[in-house]
Write a structure and sequence with these properties.
Length: 383
């Protein structure tokens, strides 16, 4: 190639290289411009540059609402544009624990600092405080809400069971709840027992959401991880926890849980729970879910639908019943996932209690019968 052609060729190469570099530079500038614009927009929202004090908005924050719920309510009401940005702001400023529940007057486009300050002020209102002990049933919860004048029992249960179209899919547990046509109460087990303070003029949805929000916060990722380790679903965990709650609800939780785990284990010689907490027994002195709760709901023992009776009679079915038999507290839920370690002499399959509250555990039917005799002898002395 002669010198002139080499010069031309080199010139072309340089020209192509320069064009590519300029394109990259323009792309970098464009990305930087977009990033700068996004940053400016975010700063503008956080700082409230476009606040409209004529656009007054009332935001109702339910009791027990977490930062995510608050951010979503602010976005849905139009106070802010981006819930995710507000969540990030709260996380960075560490003010999540200051947020209160209640009705708050805010303004469209208000600064995040002013919004947070407003939400951090306790809103005095006409409220009622109710305590729901561990082990209360869904019907218990509904009755207490009605007695407090907040809503009717029917309204509460329709909402909690999703029968009125209410949706709580913002919570993980709601999406993992199993649908079973033989459920007595779908919400049973998920209404977290605690002391709550409710607004007297709030909606039924917000009342139910208070229980569900609290339940969702208690069943942590660590507990879900433990469920996976045991091969248990959330449904299994809550149903089992309700039996632990009803059969113990005390320092014996882990021991009772172990007995039920042993019965549920593959190859168990006793694959039925056979718990009097949900059985064929018709005795008003027993705490029997079928007799004390299901039967009255349907107007008497003989009116219980056959499929419901069969699904909850632990002497008839193997494994767990269709649903929980109460709403367990955290200790019972934890015990359902962390039963007592196996005994070196073999698993326990039976237990019985006497009227002093002592528990007797047995590995065989013979041992159990002996324990029953001991318990009855103690009871006889107490008469």
């Amino acid at each position: 190639m002669d010198q002139q052609n080499k010069n031309i060729a080199n010139g072309r190469k340089k020209k192509r290289g320069f064009s590519k570099g300029r394109a990259v530079l323009l792309a970098v500038v464009a990305v930087a411009a977009v990033a700068a614009a996004a940053a400016a927009s975010a700063l503008g929202e956080i700082g409230g540059r476009h606040a409209d004090e004529s656009a007054e908005i009332t935001v109702s924050v339910p009791q027990g609402a977490g930062t995510g719920t608050v951010a979503r309510l602010l976005e849905e009401s139009g106070v802010i544009r981006h819930a995710s940005l507000y969540k990030l702001y709260i996380r960075q400023t560490g003010q999540g624990g200051q947020l209160q529940y209640g009705d708050f007057t805010l303004y469209k486009g208000e600064s995040y600092a002013d919004i947070t300050a407003a939400l951090s002020q306790y809103a005095a209102a006409d409220t009622v405080r109710i305590t729901f002990p561990d082990g209360n049933t869904a019907l218990d919860f509904a009755a207490r809400m009605e007695q407090a004048g907040l809503c009717t029992a029917e309204e509460f249960l329709a909402c909690a069971n999703g029968e009125d179209g209410s949706d709580f899919s913002q919570y993980r547990f709601w999406n993992e709840m199993q649908d079973d046509q033989n459920y007595f109460m779908r919400c049973e087990g998920y209404l977290y027992p605690e002391t709550y303070e409710f607004y007297k003029d709030d909606t039924v949805y917000n009342y139910v959401n208070t229980f569900y929000s609290h339940f969702n916060s208690k069943v942590t990722d660590d507990l879900y991880t433990r469920m996976d380790e045991l091969g248990m679903s959330l449904h299994d965990t809550i149903v089992l926890a309700s039996f632990v709650q009803e059969e113990a609800g005390n320092e014996e939780n882990a021991h009772v849980s172990a007995v039920f785990h042993n019965r549920l284990a593959p190859g168990s010689p006793y694959p039925r729970l056979e718990s009097n907490a949900s059985s064929y027994v018709q005795n008003p002195d027993d705490n029997n879910y079928i007799y004390n709760w299901i039967a009255p709901y349907y107007g008497g023992w003989d009116n219980i639908p056959a499929e419901i009776y069969s699904a909850y009679n632990t002497y008839e079915i193997s494994g767990l019943p269709a649903g929980a038999i109460s709403n367990p507290g955290y200790d019972a839920i934890y015990a359902a996932l962390y039963p007592e370690e196996p005994d070196a002499n073999g698993p326990y399959y039976f237990f019985v209690t006497d009227k002093t509250g002592r528990y007797y555990y047995g590995r065989t039917v013979e041992e159990h019968n002996q324990n029953c005799s001991k318990a009855w002898a103690v009871n006889a002395k107490l008469k």
